[in-house]
Amino acid sequence: MPHHAAPLPDIVFEEEFITGLKKVFEEMIVFNALLGLKITSLKPERVCASIAMRNELVGHFAYNRIHGGVISAGLDAMGGLAVMAAIGARHMDESPQQRLQRFSKLGTIDLRVDYLRPGIGATFELRAEVMRLGSRVASTRMEFLGADGKLLSTAAAAYIVS
Amino acid sequence: MPHHAAPLPDIVFEEEFITGLKKVFEEMIVFNALLGLKITSLKPERVCASIAMRNELVGHFAYNRIHGGVISAGLDAMGGLAVMAAIGARHMDESPQQRLQRFSKLGTIDLRVDYLRPGIGATFELRAEVMRLGSRVASTRMEFLGADGKLLSTAAAAYIVS
Amino acid sequence: MPHHAAPLPDIVFEEEFITGLKKVFEEMIVFNALLGLKITSLKPERVCASIAMRNELVGHFAYNRIHGGVISAGLDAMGGLAVMAAIGARHMDESPQQRLQRFSKLGTIDLRVDYLRPGIGATFELRAEVMRLGSRVASTRMEFLGADGKLLSTAAAAYIVS
Amino acid sequence: MPHHAAPLPDIVFEEEFITGLKKVFEEMIVFNALLGLKITSLKPERVCASIAMRNELVGHFAYNRIHGGVISAGLDAMGGLAVMAAIGARHMDESPQQRLQRFSKLGTIDLRVDYLRPGIGATFELRAEVMRLGSRVASTRMEFLGADGKLLSTAAAAYIVS
Known about the structure:
Four copies of one chain form a homotetramer. In chain A, a hairpin with a 2-residue loop joins strand 1 (38-43) and strand 2. The model of chain A has no long low-confidence stretch (mean pLDDT 91). By secondary structure, chain A is of the alpha+beta class. In chain A, 30% of the residues lie in helices and 36% in strands. The first copy, chain A, has helices spanning 15-28, 30-35, 68-90, 96-101, and strands spanning 38-43, 46-52, 58-60, 65-66, 107-115, 123-133, 137-146, 151-160. Chain A has a six-stranded antiparallel β-sheet, with helices on one face. In chain A, strands 3-4 form a two-stranded antiparallel sheet. Chains in contact: A-B, A-C, A-D, B-C, B-D, C-D. The interface between C and D is medium-sized, with 35 and 35 residues. Strand 5 of chain A pairs antiparallel with strand 5 (107-115) of chain B, so a sheet runs across the interface.
């Protein structure tokens, strides 16, 4: 069911914005670093990241399964990143620094995660897209996939914007 | 809104069951250890735990706010623990070891978290109770509170049982 | 789990406000009338209503069970009513008419319903309370009960305010 | 993000199964008839239906907007129908009547709806697909669209299967 939010203009982010957003997302949000979240793609209409499995992320010792909390935490973070990218694309008239500051105003209102299949594997992919970006609230949809592209979890979240 | 989960018999868990469940929950589920989840109360009808704030759990560098993912991960873990306690109370005819093995069969179907207020503080309390324990599915409700008892987040989740 | 929504001042609504809100809720929102929603209590911190079972509301012909959609629709409506009552209590300096106009600005952002037990009975009770009323977003918690007080469904929703 | 559940065999339902399922869904589930839900497509991997707007379904008198409850009720019904179609496709060895009886065992565990844009229009389209069909639980994703194909609401739900 490929439905996308209102089409975004054909925008390519500047290196400074991308580097800055990566730094905020991967390093300054310390818990993201603990999860090992790494951005792999950053576009106005969709963002992707990966997580490498390691022992600290185990939720089920018997099966070496990734903890559901890594999935929910990672997908919440990704939804916020998608909103940030969509906001960034809407304010290309501002400097990269000005746009990055908008990140500090984002807040998750609520999050729902559906766990479809157990997360077992060496790496995982996370994707997020904005379904609607309003002036006060943004709605997003996220996916957590295995390295083979199998859909393991889906999520939806709402964010306060501004 | 008075709660109405099926009344559970007046059961007190044996030391062996409590110690075993703590070991599984706080140590063997490695990601719970990373979160710093510590069980403070373990009863058939309600379970409580605490998390001590530390730098690794920061979600918002500007405000020293706890990451929403710590909240979602912690509340998901707590919902599972509540189901485990309710199941344990239903099978007091089994040995503590047999009951503990039931933990490995639990799986989260889905989770919803509502973020009400920013999580700022030195420690946090987490609570969970089972709203309904069926033969195949259990439904739970969870809360994330500040040290002053202020309600910061609420959550609901469904778990596969058996 | 004691609830901790911000304590609301000890306010009693005027007859004009109550009558007006009932008219809007029970009549002007036509689908509420189709559901048969009747307000039974209207306080700043909690609202209650009832639905009488009838053939049109059947979801499961084999068991005469109420349709899950009546539950989700009713609880969404109740969450909105709870927000309206909380907003009304915050603006007692305005005339009842001015406060009632605020209803038209409310919008549901999202809704989650947990179906715990089948809804079978002659009447049902619905309750809602506001967990947090912000300047832009309100979060609510709702319950759907049998005539005997048994909890049948729970729900949570977020609303745009203003 | 077009991710589908495990690919279903290339199955075409018999006329008897389709007619029977329509009768159950559109007539015997009385509240669906009240909503005016009409199946437009019934395939193992996806189901579609439509709702014609009429005065009884109004949620917002000021704007002639469809009631959020019609959306949540309709999408819950559609998720169940999608599960029913997926189950039907899995049991083509059974007679149509045997497969139809499976409908009476379905139950919604929980439902989440995200309201993206106001529902204004003469007709609406509803779609649902199964993300995962397990032996005990099925997960679905649903969409509510305007006549112009604009995405108005999305939803996700879990169902007890058996």
